[in-house]
C-alpha cells in the first residue's frame, strides 16, 4: 500500500506533462488550422496520465508477500494480480468500444444531447471515484490507519481530504442528474418547456444549506450517513435545478454543466494530490464558466436569471396572439430565388430551426448556386443560435460550408446595411428589432442581428402562428421589406434551389 | 504535496484556462465542449487507483467495483469525446480558391 503514498518525482512529472498537453489541446482550438493538432495533444496527455497511473498502481499482492515454498524470495516480491489487470483492461476496452461507436454514429444535429450525456458520465464517474475513495481511503493515500480498542481497524481520512471528497461527490452528483435532465430535454424525450414547481427557490435553497451543513459535519465526524445523504441530496438538487429551465436556455445549462464536470475533476484531483487532474479541472471549469458567460451576455440576461429558470413559459402567449392580425407579405420559393439571384450580397442567418429541419446541406447547395450566379454569400451566426455554443458552426461545417464564409455577430452586423437579401432560416428572437427599441420586451437589450437593415428580408418559418422561444412576437414579420416564406425550412430551401436552376 | 502547493497549481491553472479559453474562436465552441469533456475524464486516474487497490474487507471490494464501473464510464468519455472532436474538426475546411 505504501507505494500509493510515496510518489516518485518522475510520476509527478508525468502528470505535469499530461496537464500541459491538455492546455495545448485547448490552445490548439484558437484556429481551425491548429485544432486537429490540439486534439492529438489531448489524446497524448490522456495516454500519459492513464499509463502512469496503471504503472504506479499496478494491482498486486502486498509488497511484503512471502511465497510459501520459496521464502528466499520474500523481500520485495511483488506478485501482480493479473485478474485485476485483465478486469481493468476489459473495462477500458468496453468503454472504448461504446465511446467510439457512439462518436462514429451520432448525427451532427444531435451533438448537444451527446455532450450532455457525456457530461453526465463524467459526473457519475466523479461520484463513483469519491465513493470508492470514501470506502477505501487507505488505497488513495488520504487516511491514517487507526486501530481502535473495540471494533475493526479503519482508515481515518485527513480532514482536508474529507472536504475535497465531499465537494467532489456533491459537484459530481449535481453534474450527473443535471446533465441527465439536460439530455432528456435536448433529446426531446422530455418537453423543452420549463416545469415550474411551487416554492422551488425555497426548496433549492434549503437543499443547498442542508448539503453545506452536512459537508461541515462530515469533515468533523467522517460519518457514512452524512456522506451518503450529501450524495443523495446533490442528485436531487441537480435534478431540481435543471427541470425549470427551458429548451433555448440549454446553451447556458450545457456550458454550466461542462464547468461543473471540471470542478468535480478538480476536487477529486485535490483529494488524490494529482496535478494532471487539478490542471484539467481548472481548465474545464473555467472553459465552461466562460462559455456560460458568453451565452448569458449574448442574451443580455444574468446567469442567476437563467439558472432561476422559467423563462419562455406561457407568459408571452397572449401578446403573440394579439399581434398576428397585422398585415404581412407572403412569398414563394420562385420569388425568393429571383430576389437572391439578382442580389450582390446575401447574408444567411441560421438558427435552431435549421438544425431541426436538417436543412444545412440544402442550404449549402443554395449558397453554391447563388455563388455560381455571382452573388456574394455570407453566413451570420448569433452566439446563442442553436442549443449549444457553436452549434450552427458545426452544422455548416458538416455541410462543407467553408469556415471563412461564416461570421460572428459583431463581425457582420455592420454589413447588413450593404446587404441586398438577409435570408433568415430557423432563427427568430436573435433577429427581433424589438430588442433594440421596445423597453417592455422581455428580450430588450439582447444583442441582435440587424437583418432589418438589409434591402429585403426573407424569413423562413413554418407558420405565422408560433412565436420564438422568448414568447414575443417579431415585428420584423410585418415590415415592408420582409417577405415570409411559410414552409418547412428544408423543403423551402430545396424548392429555392430548384427555382435557381 | 502539501495543500498550499496543490492550491497554487489550481489557481494558476484557472488563470491559464481563462486566457486560453478566451482565445478559442467562437466557431469552435462545440468542439471545445467535446474536448473539455474528454479531458475532464482524466478522473479515470482516480477510478484506476480504486480498481487496482487492495482494500479492507467489504469496503475494499465495493470500492474496487465502483472503481471498475468508473473506469468504464470515463473510458466511454475519453474515447467518445476525442473521436467525436476529431470528427468535428475534420469537417472545418477553408474556402477552396
Automatic annotation (TrEMBL), chain A:
Pfam families: PNTB (PF02233)
Localization of this protein: Cell inner membrane
Domain of life the protein comes from: Bacteria
Primary localisation category: membrane
UniProt key word Oxidoreductase: yes
EC number: 7.1.1.1
Top-level EC class: translocase
GO molecular function: NADP binding; oxidoreductase activity; proton-translocating NAD(P)+ transhydrogenase activity
Residue ranges of every copy of the NADP transhydrogenase beta-like domain listed in the record: 12-498
InterPro entries registered for this protein in UniProt: DHS-like_NAD/FAD-binding_dom, NADH_DH_b, PNTB-like
Alphabetical UniProt keywords: Cell inner membrane, Cell membrane, Membrane, NAD, NADP, Oxidoreductase, Translocase, Transmembrane, Transmembrane helix
Transmembrane segments: 12-29, 41-59, 79-102, 114-143, 163-184, 196-219, 225-245, 252-270, 276-296
Example of a GO cellular component annotation carried by this entry: plasma membrane
Catalytic activity entry: NAD(+) + NADPH + H(+)(in) = NADH + NADP(+) + H(+)(out)
Membrane topology: Multi-pass membrane protein
The keyword NADP belongs to this UniProt entry's keyword annotation: yes
Function: The transhydrogenation between NADH and NADP is coupled to respiration and ATP hydrolysis and functions as a proton pump across the membrane.
Assembly, per entry: Complex of an alpha and a beta chain; in Rhodospirillum, the alpha chain seems to be made of two subunits.
Protein family (similarity comment): Belongs to the PNT beta subunit family.
PANTHER family: NAD(P) TRANSHYDROGENASE SUBUNIT BETA (PTHR44758:SF1)
Protein name in UniProt: NAD(P) transhydrogenase subunit beta
Organism (species): Sphingomonas xinjiangensis
UniProtKB/TrEMBL annotation, chain B:
Domain NAD(P) transhydrogenase alpha subunit C-terminal: 7-94
A Pfam entry, by short name: PNTB_4TM
PANTHER family: NAD(P) TRANSHYDROGENASE, PROTON-TRANSLOCATING NAD(P)(+) TRANSHYDROGENASE
Protein name: proton-translocating NAD(P)(+) transhydrogenase
GO cellular component entries: plasma membrane
Entry GO MF terms: NADP binding; oxidoreductase activity; proton-translocating NAD(P)+ transhydrogenase activity
Top-level class of the enzyme under EC nomenclature: translocase
Catalyzed reactions: NAD(+) + NADPH + H(+)(in) = NADH + NADP(+) + H(+)(out)
Function: The transhydrogenation between NADH and NADP is coupled to respiration and ATP hydrolysis and functions as a proton pump across the membrane.
Record has Ribonucleoprotein as a keyword: no
Keywords assigned: Cell inner membrane, Cell membrane, Membrane, NAD, NADP, Oxidoreductase, Translocase, Transmembrane, Transmembrane helix
EC numbers on record: 7.1.1.1
Cellular localization per UniProt: Cell inner membrane
Source organism: Sphingomonas xinjiangensis
Amino acid at each position: 500500500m505504501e507505494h500509493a503514498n510515496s510518489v516518485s518525482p518522475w510520476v509527478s512529472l508525468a502528470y505535469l506533462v499530461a496537464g500541459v498537453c491538455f492546455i495545448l489541446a485547448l490552445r490548439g482550438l484558437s484556429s481551425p488550422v491548429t485544432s486537429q493538432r490540439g486534439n492529438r495533444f489531448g489524446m497524448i496527455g490522456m495516454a500519459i496520465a492513464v499509463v502512469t497511473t496503471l504503472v504506479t498502481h499496478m494491482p498486486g499482492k502486498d509488497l511484503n508477500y512471502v511465497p510459501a515454498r520459496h521464502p528466499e524470495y520474500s523481500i520485495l516480491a511483488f506478485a501482480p494480480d493479473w485478474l485485476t489487470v485483465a478486469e481493468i483492461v476489459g473495462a477500458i476496452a468496453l468503454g472504448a468500444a461504446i465511446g467510439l461507436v457512439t462518436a462514429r454514429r451520432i448525427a451532427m444535429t444531435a451533438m448537444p444531447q451527446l455532450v450532455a450525456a457525456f457530461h453526465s458520465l463524467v459526473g457519475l464517474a466523479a461520484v463513483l471515484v469519491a465513493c470508492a475513495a470514501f470506502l477505501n481511503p487507505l488505497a488513495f493515500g488520504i487516511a491514517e490507519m487507526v486501530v481502535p480498542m473495540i471494533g475493526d481497524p479503519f482508515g481515518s481520512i485527513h480532514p482536508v481530504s474529507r472536504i475535497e471528497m465531499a465537494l467532489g461527490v456533491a459537484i459530481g452528483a449535481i453534474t450527473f442528474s443535471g446533465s441527465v435532465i439536460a439530455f432528456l430535454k435536448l433529446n426531446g424525450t422530455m418537453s423543452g418547456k420549463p416545469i415550474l414547481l411551487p416554492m422551488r427557490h425555497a426548496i433549492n435553497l434549503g437543499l443547498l444549506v442542508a448539503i453545506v451543513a452536512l459537508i461541515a459535519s462530515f469533515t468533523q465526524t467522517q460519518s457514512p450517513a452524512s456522506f451518503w445523504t450529501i450524495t443523495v441530496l446533490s442528485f436531487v438538487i441537480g435534478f431540481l435545478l435543471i427541470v425549470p429551465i427551458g429548451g433555448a436556455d440549454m446553451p447556458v445549462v450545457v456550458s454550466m454543466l461542462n464547468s461543473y464536470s471540471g470542478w468535480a475533476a478538480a476536487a477529486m484531483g485535490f483529494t488524490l494530490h494529482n496535478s494532471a487532474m487539478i490542471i484539467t479541472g481548472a481548465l474545464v471549469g473555467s472553459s465552461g464558466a466562460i462559455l456560460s458567460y458568453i451565452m448569458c451576455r449574448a442574451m443580455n440576461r444574468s446567469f442567476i436569471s437563467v439558472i432561476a429558470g422559467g423563462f419562455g413559459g406561457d407568459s408571452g402567449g397572449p401578446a403573440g396572439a394579439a399581434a398576428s392580425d397585422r398585415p404581412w407579405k407572403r412569398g414563394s420559393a420562385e420569388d425568393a430565388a429571383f430576389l437572391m439571384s439578382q442580389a450582390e450580397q446575401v447574408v444567411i442567418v441560421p438558427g435552431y430551426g435549421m438544425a431541426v429541419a436538417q436543412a444545412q446541406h440544402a442550404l449549402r447547395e443554395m449558397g453554391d448556386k447563388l455563388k455560381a450566379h455571382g452573388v456574394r454569400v455570407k453566413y451570420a451566426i448569433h452566439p446563442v443560435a442553436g442549443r449549444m455554443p457553436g452549434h450552427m458552426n458545426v452544422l455548416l461545417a458538416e455541410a462543407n460550408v467553408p469556415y471563412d464564409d461564416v461570421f460572428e455577430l459583431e463581425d457582420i452586423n455592420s454589413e447588413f446595411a450593404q446587404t441586398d437579401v438577409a435570408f433568415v432560416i430557423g432563427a427568430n428572437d436573435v433577429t427581433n428589432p424589438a430588442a433594440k427599441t421596445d423597453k417592455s420586451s422581455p428580450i430588450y437589450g439582447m444583442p441582435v442581428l440587424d437583418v432589418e437593415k438589409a434591402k429585403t428580408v426573407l424569413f423562413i418559418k413554418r407558420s405565422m402562428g408560433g412565436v420564438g422561444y422568448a414568447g414575443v412576437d417579431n415585428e420584423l414579420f410585418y415590415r415592408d421589406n420582409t417577405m415570409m416564406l411559410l414552409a418547412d425550412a428544408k423543403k423551402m430551401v430545396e424548392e429555392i434551389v430548384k427555382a435557381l436552376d | 504535496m502539501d495543500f498550499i502547493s496543490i492550491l497554487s497549481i489550481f489557481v494558476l491553472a484557472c488563470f491559464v484556462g481563462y486566457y486560453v479559453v478566451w482565445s478559442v474562436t467562437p466557431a469552435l465552441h462545440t468542439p471545445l465542449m467535446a474536448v473539455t469533456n474528454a479531458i475532464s475524464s482524466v478522473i479515470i486516474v482516480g477510478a484506476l487507483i480504486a480498481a487496482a487497490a487492495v482494500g479492507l474487507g467489504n469496503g475494499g471490494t465495493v470500492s474496487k467495483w465502483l472503481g471498475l464501473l468508473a473506469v468504464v464510464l470515463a473510458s466511454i468519455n475519453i474515447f467518445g469525446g476525442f473521436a467525436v472532436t476529431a470528427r468535428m474538426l475534420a469537417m472545418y475546411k477553408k474556402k477552396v480558391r
